[in-house]
Amino acid sequence: MRLDRVPADRVPAELTVTHVTKTYRVRGRDRAGTGRTVTAVEDVSLRIPAGAAIGLVGASGSGKSTLARLITGSERPTSGSITFGDMAVGRLRTAGLRRLHSQVQIVFQDPYGALNPLHTVEYTLTRPCQNFLHMPAEQAARRVGELLETVGLTPPAQFAAKLPHQLSGGQRQRVLIARALASEPSLIVADEPVSMLDVSLRAGILELLADLRRQRGLSLLYITHDLLSARLVTEEVLVLNAGRIVEQGPTRQVLQHPQHAYTVRLLDAVPNPFAAAIPATGSIPSTDRGTT
């Protein structure tokens, strides 16, 4: 399905996050005897124009994945608002969430845990074609072949019949990307999509995401702890620390001239493969609140 043939409700739309905060109740009480809460995301605002590629960068515990769950409607913000096109994400119920999920898809971090081990690749890719695009079985089967071709798993017939345990980590991640593409979304949220892959496979996955965005006019929210990988797929980055955005700007500018001390520490924590000797950097100091 080409972009100019996509139904009107799947034409790329702008995502807007406005002063969003997310808190969780935890066990125990504070000194005043009231219930304790943990703030995972605090007063975050961002905008992803249609067709743009934005990076959200931060160490573990900075609130990146919490924000991804809020954007995809898996959780509701404690305060603030999130809109995608004409949809108020935090207010959506069953039918509205179904519509949102047909247009906003997520690629998960763990290619080993995100696929049902009992289902073949063909089944995994057929379901969203039928559920979101209402394709008959024969058409959905053809669509599976197209999706596998798109993500570089060829010949398609060979991969369609496989179970997840018969695939490598890189192949599984390509299946996850194909599943995300199956509903013809206009925004993909890629949550640490290469962090669990061998270094030799990461560039190929990032190149695939960049090519798909250009070819299909997709919007992309790329979530990572690695600022250097963000330069391959994003135009702008936002740096998140302890649930708050501490720096943002064009990717190249932030990489070359970081303004915030936390951004500098993130860059310093990335190993330099060209250095004669790489000192141990340890963990990145931050005021993490324990939620990723």
Describe this structure in words.
It is a single chain. With 292 residues, the chain is of the alpha/beta class. It has a domain at 3-112 and 176-268: Rossmann fold (3-Layer(aba) Sandwich). It has 10 helices and 10 strands. The strands form 2 sheets. A 6-stranded mixed beta sheet has the order 6-7-8-3-9-10, sandwiched between helices. Helix 6 runs parallel beside helix 7. The chain is globular, with a radius of gyration of 20 Å. The model is unreliable at 1-8 and 273-292 (pLDDT under 50).
What's the topology here?
Elements: E1 15-29, E2 35-48, E3 53-57, H1 64-71, E4 79-84, E5 87-88, H2 94-103, E6 104-107, H3 121-133, H4 137-150, H5 156-160, H6 169-181, E7 187-191, H7 199-216, E8 219-224, H8 227-230, E9 236-241, E10 244-250, H9 251-256, H10 261-268
Parallel strand pairs: 3-8, 3-9, 6-7, 7-8
Antiparallel strand pairs: 1-2, 1-4, 4-5, 9-10
Helix pairs in contact: 3-4, 6-7
The whole-angstrom Rg is 20 Å
Q: Which structural class do you get from the secondary structure elements? A: alpha/beta
By DSSP, the count of extended strands is: 10
The CATH class of the domain at 3-112 and 176-268, by name, is Alpha Beta
The CATH architecture name of the domain at 3-112 and 176-268 reads 3-Layer(aba) Sandwich
Q: DSSP helix count?
A: 10
Low-confidence stretches: 1-8, 273-292
What is the mean predicted local confidence, pLDDT?
87
Per CATH, the superfamily of the domain at 3-112 and 176-268 is: P-loop containing nucleotide triphosphate hydrolases
Q: Strand-and-helix sequence, N→C?
A: EEEHEEHEHHHHEHEHEEHH
End-to-end distance, in Å? 35 Å
* Beta content: 15-25%
Give a short account of the largest sheet. 6 strands, mixed
> Which strand order spans the largest sheet, edge to edge or round the barrel?
6-7-8-3-9-10
The share of residues in helices is: 25-40%
CATH fold-level label of the domain at 3-112 and 176-268: Rossmann fold
What overall form do the CA principal axes indicate?
globular
